[in-house]
Request: fold
Amino acid sequence: MDRAGQSAGLAGPVVGTRVIACAAAGMGLEKTRVVAAGDGVKRLDIYIGRTMLAATLLTWLVVIVLEGLFVFLGEIGAIGHGDYTLADASLFVMLTLPVRAYQSFPMAVLIGSLLGLGSLAAQFELNAFRLAGCSPARLTRSVLQAGAVMLLAVVVLGEGWAPSSQQLARQLRTSALYDQVSVQRDAGFWVRNGQQMIQVRRSEADGSLSGLLVYAIDATPRLVSASRVASARFQQGQWHLEDIQTSYFNDQQVDVRRTSQSVWPSLIAPRLAQLLTRDAQTLSLPELSQYIDYLQENGTSVALYRLNYWQRLAIPVAAMAMLFLAVSFVLGPIGRLSIGQRILIGVVVGLVFKLFNEITAHAGLVFGAPPWLSVFAPSALVFIAGLLLLRRTG
Reply:
């Protein structure tokens, strides 16, 4: 017990209280002292959680700022096209940050945990905890508890606010870049293209459209014609329409004409037609699940949408895997490394994990593996690696 007390003293008064608590809880002292020890262990959890939270939030902020900067640089080329201004580009970047922040959280939590726990290890506080009776498993539990609290808030951001923010960003960008506005309704989309009002009942993942109603008006405004189009596909710079029935409204009669195929140079901007396809990132998980069911009922391939669904479910699991790996690193081989070395290790491991995630996900698509298997396999391997490292540290 004297040895534990000396270690606690070296770690400072705050650490000392937690060391005594761990020692009391580990040695099973009398009831009243065990109760006090339990309070001390709770304070230990709070202390570790606070350290973890500060380091992770700071790291996450840096990652978000860097991602936002790269996105903004990519938008500079679009400034000046249509009504797209610098303010529009800045607003677009801000509105897309929630999705990017959610996707980058696993890497941020890895680097932040290495920094936060590494600072405790560098000051010998983790050694003091262990000498006082706190096992690596108990320290890991404290870290994972703090991570679970952070993760809950992040999931609310990523699945609550981020999809609607992403959808708004794309709508604002499209409105500024093109002299067209698209509105989604239960019956499809309405698009204005100059003197044409176009209703698109269905848009496919490949950019083709079906069930179109095209109303042409003049400057009066007066309805000039109404066309019913079965399908439209953009190829070689033009729209290729099939099964068209057009009604021309003259002063005294209506002239109806039918054609099996026709080529229109202008209908909808091709990029806008692609945006009409519901982007999975603009949907919440329940909405995405319903959309997948809808596509399946209509015989449309849902492989990419299903993959995206499982990838989003895997983000919290990946974050906890990164956190678990960080604990095993700090308690094991890199606890005494410098801050720069820990950041470098975190960045390298995070990038390798992200790349491996992408490879396994697309390999699963190619080979027909279940999407849940291809997206959860990397996190499972990280958990196994962390567990092996913890076993080596005792």
Summary: The first helix runs from residue 2 to 11. The mean pLDDT is 79.
